């Protein structure tokens, strides 16, 4: 009877969940560096294979294939997102991100220059710059 009275007089636990430990229950995905260098996790490549692919994508991007830089950034997104993870891969992935950004700015400015400026910007040389009248100039269309 005395044991039941002491447990009844004890202050109740304000947190009845015994497993509520805030330090061990944190989301380990957000707080730590990634375990896998690719976006497909354990199904992806090992770190050595990833290094080989990242280096190849980076180098072939200079061979007028800058879309490979975009693929490199997408596929190795965990490396790009976490600055301290996979230090061997990071220079190639960051270089791909910079290269693709520069390529996108140049391509967009070229396209906008021709789309917005047109004949008003280039004057009389406009007819020689545009490609849609090449067939007319060569006499390949029947309606001229």
H/E topology pattern = HHHHHHHH
What is the count of DSSP helices, taking H or I runs of 4+ residues? Answer: 8
C-alpha-based Rg, rounded:
30 Å
Distance between the termini: 111 Å
Binned strand content:
under 5%
Major sheet: none
Number of strands: 0
Describe this entry's structure for a reader.
The chain is mostly helical and 144 residues long. Helices cover 57% and strands 0% of the residues. It is built from 8 helices and no strands. α3 (47-61) runs antiparallel to α4 (67-75) and α3 (47-61) runs parallel beside α6. It is elongated. The protein starts with a helix and ends in a 7-residue tail after the last helix. The relative contact order is 0.08. The model is unreliable at 22-29 (pLDDT under 50).
Q: How do the strands and helices of this protein lay out in sequence?
A:
Blueprint: H1 2-9, H2 28-31, H3 47-61, H4 67-75, H5 77-81, H6 90-122, H7 126-129, H8 134-137
């Amino acid at each position: 009877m005395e044991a039941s009275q002491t447990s009844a007089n004890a202050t109740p636990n304000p947190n009845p969940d015994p497993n509520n430990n805030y330090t061990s229950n944190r989301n380990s995905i957000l707080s730590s560096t990634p375990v896998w260098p690719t976006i497909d996790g354990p199904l992806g490549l090992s770190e050595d294979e990833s290094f080989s692919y990242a280096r190849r994508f980076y180098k072939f991007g200079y061979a007028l294939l800058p879309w490979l830089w975009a693929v490199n950034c997408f596929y190795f997104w965990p490396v790009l997102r976490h600055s301290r993870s996979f230090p061997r891969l990071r220079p190639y992935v960051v270089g791909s991100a910079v290269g693709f950004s520069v390529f996108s700015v140049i391509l967009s400015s070229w396209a906008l220059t021709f789309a917005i400026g047109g004949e008003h910007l280039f004057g009389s040389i406009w007819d020689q710059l545009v490609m849609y009248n090449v067939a007319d100039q060569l006499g390949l269309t029947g309606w001229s």
